[in-house]
Amino acid sequence: MAETKSQELIPRDVPAVRTKYRRIQTPIPVPESIPILQQLRAHEPRSMSGQPLVVWDRAEGYQVFDRWGNCWIDWSSGVLVTNVGHNHPAVAQAITDQVNHGLVHNYCFPSEIRAKLVKRLARAAPEGLGKVFLLTTGSEAVECAIKLARTWGPTVGPPEKIAVVTFDNAFHGRTLGSQMAGGIPALKNWIVHLDPDLVQAPFPDGFRGGPDTSFDVFLNTLVAKGVRPERVAGVMTETYQGGNASFAPPEYIQKLRAWCDEHKALLIFDEVQAGFGRTGRYWGFEHYGVVPDLICCGKGITSGMPLSAVIGRDDVMDLYPPGSMTSTHTGNPVCAAAALASLDVIDAENLVEAAQRKGEILQAELRRIGGRFPERVGAVHGRGLVAALHVVQPGGIEPDPDTASRIVLRCVEKGLLMFAPVGYAGASVKVAPPLVIPEEPLRESLAVLEEACQEVMG
Ligand code: PMP
Questions:
Q1: Which pLDDT value is given to residue 395?
Q2: Ligand 1 pocket test: which of 273, 278, 283, 428 has the largest number of ligand atoms within 8 Å of its C-beta?
Q3: I need a labelling partner for 22 at 20 to 30 A (CA). Which of 69, 245, 287, 440 fits?
Q4: Which residues form the pocket of ligand 1, taking CB atoms under 6 Å from any ligand atom?
């Protein structure tokens, strides 16, 4: 991918900003930060240089600070990680206490803190999902769910019951299996020999997936691709498609649940982004009124430390005998302490309800702002405190990644931190503030986005 203007290491003068919540008082990127950026460019792969050129020094709550006096309202949450806010005092204290207590690693040897966390997660999950396997990244959780589905299939059907159906435009991670399960062909070129039993169906978002959001599309796709239902071990979907913040119609997912039951296929929700309050529900799948068989989670589980999990039905989770489904850093005690504290904060501060309430403001305002530029914003998707503006070429639905990048760049220059556009062809401006953002800075940040949209597309 060619470098965009926003990635050039050339400081640009930008108007100063000083409000209660934002401060920009230097050129962007900051001239003094260039050596750090150069060092990263020299020693990291080029793939790591895609984000706005803000050198993070400190982050607290819903704000990110650099060393040179600039301060941003954060609409990234890292990458949908810091649900309870950056460096929440309770999470920081739990991490410190665990280190001071004297256990920072325990592999699969039993430990009390891991016992506490798996019990806590099993309790947070719907009834019937009683077992929890802790891992480190979202991709690993997805890989594990695929492995479980493909191991389980032949135990309830023929040996070839190993197909896993996923969705077009889905993102499940960057490792071999998770990338193959994803639905973005350009990201899979390197794999060459794609597994024929990882099959994609159109995602019923009513936009990129086409206007027909009926469940018939799923059924017809299986027929067209020659996948017999008895060969399907599982169907996996992101609760909402991360890149585009797109949800499916509840009726579709309810029919999918019934179809999975009928054909003995596991329904797997990838909640890596959606879990722990992000969408205004504890679990995102609650919007659909269904219960999955397996849940993959990560990101917001700790609000900062690397930890992920597969939560699922006992019979599926117990397929592998002792010692054969493990991981070096499973339930790392420091990460487990952070997770327990973060889960406590979500409850104590009513952050699920807060995400729902503030989400109503966010979603309404984003739709209003998008509506001001009907030629350029093809759709606004999202729920709770996650959303995306789908930026398109004038008058059509062809994605316009360039304009999306310019909007993000303008926002960053004005003290609103966002990650680089994601989603379909990199043309989605994604919005995901920490769930703790108060209403006033939320409204201020929406005004910043509107200004940026006006400047770029007006
Ligand atoms: N699933 C979803 C829905 C995700 O959004 C992501 C990360 N963006 C992943 C899986 C992969 O997680 P990780 O980067 O921690 O491997």
A1: 87
A2: 273
A3: 245
A4: 79, 137-139, 142, 171-173, 238, 242, 270, 272-273, 298
Mutate to test the pocket of ligand 1, among 80, 171, 176 (most ligand atoms within 8 A of CB): 171
Residue among 168, 158, 152 at smallest CA distance from 267: 152
For residue 337, give the amino acid letter. A
DSSP 381: E
Q: Which atom of ligand 1 is nearest to the CA of 142?
A: 10
Residue 241 is classified by DSSP as E
φ, ψ dihedrals at 288, nearest 5°? -95, -10
Task: Find the 335 Cα to ligand 1 centroid distance in Å.
Answer: 17
pLDDT given at position 161: 98
Q: Which DSSP helix (H) or strand (E) runs through 455?
A: helix 439-457
Q: Is the pTM of this model over 0.85?
A: yes
Instruction: Please compute Rg for the chain using Cα positions.
Output: 22
Please give the distance, rounded to the nearest whole angstrom, from the Cα atom of residue 204 to the centre of ligand 1. 20
Indicate which atom in ligand 1 lies nearest the CA of residue 173.
11
Domains of the chain: 7-84+350-457 (3.90.1150.10), 89-348 (3.40.640.10)
Mean pLDDT of 157-185: 98
- 352 is written with which tokens? 């699920």
Q: Which of 426, 143, 355, 386 has its CA nearest to residue 270?
A: 143
CA distance 356 to 376: 28
Residue 443 reports pLDDT greater than 50: yes
> Cα(24) to centroid of ligand 1, in Å?
31
From the CA of 175, give the closest atom in ligand 1.
16
Q: Can you tell me the distance from the alpha carbon of 49 to that of 47, in angstroms, rounded to the nearest whole number?
A: 6
Each residue of 241-285: pLDDT tens digit? Answer: 999 999 999 999 999 999 999 999 999 999 999 999 999 999 999
> If you search the block for the tokens 């008082």, which residue do you land on?
25
How far, in Å, is the centroid of ligand 1 from the Cα of 190?
19
Hey, whose CA ends up nearest to atom 10 of ligand 1? 172
Question: Are 431 and 455 contacting, i.e. CB atoms less than 8 angstroms apart?
Answer: no
Cα 238 to ligand 1 centre (Å): 10
The 3-state DSSP class for residue 109 equals coil
- pLDDT higher for 395 or 111? 111
Structure tokens at 100: 């001071």
CA–CA gap between residue 438 and residue 114 (Å, rounded):
33
Q: How many angstroms does the Cα of residue 307 sit away from the middle of ligand 1?
A: 12
User: How far is ligand 1, taken at its centre, from the CA of residue 35, in Å?
Assistant: 30
Are 183 and 162 within 8 A, CB to CB? no
